[in-house]
Design goal:
- By secondary structure, this protein is α/β, with parallel strands linked by helices.
- It has three domains: 5-157, 2-Layer Sandwich (Beta Polymerase, domain 2); 167-298, Rossmann fold (3-Layer(aba) Sandwich), CATH 3.40.50; 341-418, no CATH class.
- It has helices at residues 17-23, 27-40, 66-76, 95-107, 118-132, 138-157, 167-178, 194-205, 219-229, 239-245, 262-265, 300-364, 369-400, 404-413; strands at 5-11, 44-50, 54-60, 90-92, 186-190, 211-216, 232-235, 248-251, 274-278, 295-298.
- The protein has a six-stranded parallel beta sheet with strand order 7-6-5-8-9-10, sandwiched between helices. Strands 2-3-1-4 form a four-stranded antiparallel beta sheet, sandwiched between helices.
- α5 (118-132) packs antiparallel against α6, α6 packs across α12 and α7 crosses α12 (300-364).
- It is elongated and about 105 Å long.
- GO terms for molecular function: glutamyl-tRNA reductase activity; NADP binding.
- Substrate binds at residues 51-54, 116-118, 122.
- Pfam families: GlutR_dimer, GlutR_N, Shikimate_DH.
């Protein structure tokens, strides 16, 4: 394993929502931080991951760079210093622990809702930004490709990714099913509280819905959420018109009495089915709306029951997921160790090739072209046979975790210190 690999992490487990919001990074900020850390601080294998529940920086460096990274983050977010944010971050300097953390994050094991699959797409996006900034070294490339392959195995071999385990995501899936027959469904989201924000983020991230509108009593909250998620905004005074135009209305409004009633809907003729999803407690959509022809209502309990069943299946699959992660990490460890001895193998090949070429020059002058060609083939074949056993022994030593002594012996025997370092 690359023993220089580390991570500094802020997550929902330690930081309240207000702090997470304060330190959340959009795409331009992530890209800017990548450049600062890789070009100005000289860090390698840099990955900046920022979601609604976490802000993390993975990197490779000889020493812990937690303070320097936090300083740059505070400057980027226009904070006076790091004193107020540092207690919420965890710095993991052990390579195995840092790698294991990234696997757990990308699989959804560390998500607020276990098995949340949105994080996998966010990790892929973060990796793309890192690669485009030339901040990803060979180790990070290999690590992320291993992570993505592991996620594919988890999806194919376990039930960990099945169903929607959060009410917000279950709502998205329900609306997708209800509107499958519509080419461009119109969705109205009511409410911009914590629950409404989760729902809006899921709809904003979905490629299925291009016409999603958010409506909230406080217009400023709706505007901020719409900007974040790429949604439209409807003024609360125009709610009745918005309901009339929507195919689906999802409400998470906190209200003492229902906001949507049969009386509100009655004046508007429902020419086809109109779907209402009530996520509020107490209910913000009166049950009597179903007396209006064409109206179908889905209450919170029905969606919550579906989400709870999915969560139970995911939790049951966690041991399988961890076993797959362990296999992937073992494979990554083997690759990392082989990479450590790769320069020695290449130097040995170069040393033997130089000897071969020197001897070819000595004897080929006295040979015909046909004889020289034959000698070239013979010596190449002989060199490969000589190399085979040392290479196999080096790889075997890597798997045992003890390549050091063999590397030293080969270096001394063949004077490999004099060989140039392979590019």
């Amino acid at each position: 394993m690359n023993q220089r690999f580390k991570v500094i992490s802020l997550t929902h487990r330690k930081a309240p929502l207000a702090i997470r919001e304060q330190l959340a990074l959009d795409e331009p900020a992530c890209r800017q931080l990548l450049l600062i850390l890789s070009q100005e601080l000289g860090l390698t294998d840099v990955l900046v991951l920022s979601t609604c529940n976490r802000t993390e920086v993975y990197y490779s460096a000889p020493q812990d760079q937690c303070d320097a990274i936090l300083s740059e983050l505070a400057h980027l977010k226009s904070l006076p210093d790091t004193a107020q944010i540092a207690p919420y971050f965890t710095s993991t300097t052990g390579a195995n622990a840092a790698v294991g953390h990234l696997f757990e994050v990308a699989m959804g094991l560390d998500a607020q809702v276990v098995g949340d699959q949105q994080i996998s797409h966010q990790v892929k996006q973060a990796y793309q930004w890192s690669a485009e900034a030339d901040a990803a070294g060979p180790f990070l490339h290999r690590l992320l490709h291993t992570v993505f392959f592991t996620h594919k195995r988890v999806r194919q071999e376990t039930g960990f990714c099945d169903g929607a385990a959060s009410v917000a995501y279950a709502t998205l899936q329900l609306v997708e099913d209800l509107t499958a027959h519509l080419a461009s469904p119109r969705v109205l989201l009511m409410g911009a509280g914590p629950f409404g924000m989760d729902v809006a983020r899921h709809f904003g991230a979905s490629r299925r819905f291009a016409h999603v509108t958010i409506c909230n009593r406080t217009r400023a909250k709706a505007d901020a959420l719409a900007t974040e998620c790429g949604l439209r905004v409807l003024d609360f005074a125009d709610l009745a018109q918005g309901i009339q135009e929507a195919d689906v209305v999802v409400s998470s409004v906190a209200a003492a009495a229902p906001v949507i009633t049969a009386q509100l809907l009655a004046p508007a003729a429902v020419l086809s089915h109109k779907y209402f999803v009530d996520l509020s407690v107490p209910r913000s959509i009166a049950p009597d709306v179903e007396t209006v022809p064409g109206v179908l209502l889905y209450p919170l309990d029905a969606i919550r029951s579906k989400a709870s069943a999915a969560l139970e299946r995911r939790l049951a699959a966690v041991p399988q997921v961890r076993a797959i992660i362990a296999e992937s990490m073992a494979g990554l460890q083997d690759w990392s160790e082989e990479m450590e001895v790769s320069p020695t193998i290449q130097k040995l090949k170069n040393a033997l090739e130089q000897l071969r070429q020197d001897e070819m020059k000595r004897f080929s002058k006295k040979m015909s072209p046909a004889e020289a060609s034959l000698l070239d083939k013979i010596t190449r074949s002989l060199m490969q046979k000589v190399l085979r056993q040392p290479v196999l022994q080096l790889k075997a030593a890597c798997k045992r975790g003890e390549p050091g002594q063999l590397v030293e012996s080969l270096t001394a025997l063949f004077d490999l210190e004099r060989q140039p370092v392979p590019a």
